[in-house]
Design a protein that fits this description.
By secondary structure, the chain is mainly beta. The chain is built from five helices and 16 strands.
């Protein structure tokens, strides 16, 4: 079933710092994952836009229902904030009712460090049929020193292995995290005993291997070409890097992916709002001769990909459009 998107308004009259949280479904058998985000007071349209590509404030996945940060580390919950929940339900065939609960532990005082989650995502997936070891990689630059607390990996049932690798400015390469047997049903968080500094000028490479063969017992259909999508029978590639900065300092990013659909998205996004209007997306038809003189087809595709009907496409929606334009489906 489609992801559900629920939001609630907080009644806090002052900013709070959250040192720990736990997300509890009342029926865990039908809840695969939950992504929680926090939106500043006054935001008019808190939407389910990014499918995890934009990171998260809190998350629930199999094997990882919550988190407690050390003293001096916390996440901010602004006064009057809106809290949104993206919920992936997986029907079991039995009628049930389900109601999420999220418990928070407030820090006793303002922390020294704000905890931030950076996503490294590749929506440009193209996994061929019957491929037992299909590799997808992304590389992102480290624009400032980044202190890492933990990593998480997210794929679906064709996910086989996942690897984070660092290349430092002097050309040396080291493995940050290697998951040789990824398990969709047991998505763990991998914490450092002491934070690891990724130096400015480095590059982080994420490598994921997918098994779309008949030998994968969890594979829904080895005859299908698989692309990015929300549902379990589709795929994702997201590597989460949890970091921290002194309170009040700018949020660190690794947001310049090398090549792929993100570069085209940025090129088309002329107003820089990280969304594509119909006019901006129409420029993509210059690359598809069969659509150049047939704008009605693009209009039809655009409306089909615009799942929340807001007249714009986010990165994930654009990737689906791009696959259609490439004839990948």
């Amino acid at each position: 079933m489609p992801y559900q998107f629920v939001k609630t308004e907080t009644t806090l009259d002052e900013d709070k710092w959250v040192q720990g949280y736990e997300i509890l479904p009342t029926d865990r058998s039908v809840v695969h994952h939950v992504i929680v985000n926090v939106h500043e007071k006054g935001i008019k349209r808190a939407r389910d836009r990014e499918q995890g590509i934009g990171g998260y404030w809190a998350a629930y996945v199999p094997g990882n229902p919550g988190q407690m940060y050390p003293d001096g580390f916390a996440k901010k919950l602004p006064a009057g904030a809106t809290v949104s929940f993206q919920i992936h339900y997986t029907p079991s065939g039995v009628a049930t009712q389900e109601q999420l609960k999220m418990g928070l532990i407030f820090a006793k005082s303002e922390p020294k460090y704000a905890v931030i989650t950076i996503p490294l995502a590749d929506p440009d997936l193209n996994i061929p049929p019957h491929a037992a070891n299909h590799m997808e990689t992304i590389t992102r630059p480290v624009s400032t020193d980044i202190s890492v607390m933990a990593y998480m990996a997210h794929m679906h049932v064709r996910g086989r292995s996942f690897n984070f690798e660092l290349t430092t400015p002097d050309g040396k390469t080291e493995t940050l995290l290697d998951i040789p047997r990824y398990d969709f049903n047991w998505q763990l968080r991998y914490d450092y005993l002491e934070p690891k500094v990724l130096p400015k000028g480095s590059r982080v490479k994420v490598t994921a291997v997918f098994d779309n063969s008949e030998n994968n017992p969890a594979n829904p259909d080895p005859t299908k070409t698989v692309h990015w999508g929300q549902q379990t029978y589709e795929e994702m590639l997201i590597g989460y890097v949890e970091t921290f900065v002194p309170v009040g300092e700018p949020r660190p990013t690794m947001d310049a992916r090398v090549g792929g659909g993100a570069a085209l998205f940025t090129l088309l996004d002329t107003d820089g709002d990280q969304m594509l209007s119909k006019d901006e997306a129409r420029k993509a038809t210059d690359r598809v001769p069969r659509l150049k003189d047939n704008p009605a087809v693009l209009e039809l595709l655009f409306n089909r990909m615009d799942q929340d009907a807001d007249g714009k496409l986010n990165m994930a929606e654009f990737e689906k459009l791009r696959q259609e334009l490439r004839g990948g489906r």
